[in-house]
TrEMBL record:
Keyword Oxidoreductase listed: yes
Name by which UniProt lists this protein: Flavin reductase family protein
Species annotation: Streptomyces rugosispiralis
InterPro entries reported for this sequence: Flavin_Rdtase-like_dom (IPR002563), NADH-dep_flavin_reductase (IPR050268), Split_barrel_FMN-bd (IPR012349)
Coiled coil region boundaries: none
SMART domains reported in the protein's UniProt record: Flavin_Reduct
Keywords: Oxidoreductase
Domain Flavin reductase like: 17-160
Length: 166
């Protein structure tokens, strides 16, 4: 059962959350059979430096949720403005998401964006239920940075660093 605050207007809550700019990531993995899967997430954060842990939140209703909860590894790709359209594809159900990006595959067959602002490779440490989402906690095994600047998500649209927010 989901707890609800008495009198909380869901639209007002969503609007309030939209006022918090956040980074945009495309999170990828592969199923046990080798099929690539991914989703767009703006709920991503560093959790710990020692040990190196990150967290990313995934809608439990997403088609790929069972694959990620069973995955041994996943990759967080921090996207640049050049990936904005791709991030929209990865946020859409039913799309053949990997048909659109220039993905490479690491030595274990996990898809990554070579021109991302950063690529963070993780081992799934824990999957923790959190309301209508699951919090994927990843132990970072490798991180590399690219030359591009990240893009942010603000008030339902992409906002580039240095761009004025309306």
């Amino acid at each position: 059962m989901v707890d609800r605050f008495q009198g909380l207007d869901p639209a007002a809550f969503r609007s309030a959350l939209a006022r918090f700019p956040s980074g945009v990531t495309i999170v990828t993995t592969r199923s046990a059979s080798g099929t690539p899967h991914g989703f767009t997430a703006s709920s991503f954060a560093a959790l710990s430096l020692d040990p190196p842990l990150v967290l990313v939140c995934l809608d439990q209703g997403a088609d790929c949720a069972p694959v990620f909860m069973a995955a041994e590894r996943f990759i967080v790709n921090i996207v640049t403005p050049a990936h904005a359209e791709l991030a929209i594809k990865f946020a859409t159900k039913g799309e053949n998401k990997f048909a659109y990006g220039d993905f490479e595959f690491d030595e274990r067959g996990h898809p990554l964006l070579p021109d991302a602002a950063a690529v963070i490779r993780c081992e799934l440490e824990q999957a923790v239920p959190g309301g209508d989402h699951v919090i994927l906690i990843g132990r970072v095994h490798d991180a590399r940075t690219g030359s591009g600047k990240p893009v942010t998500w603000y008030r339902g649209d992409f906002l580039h660093l240095g761009q004025s927010a309306a």
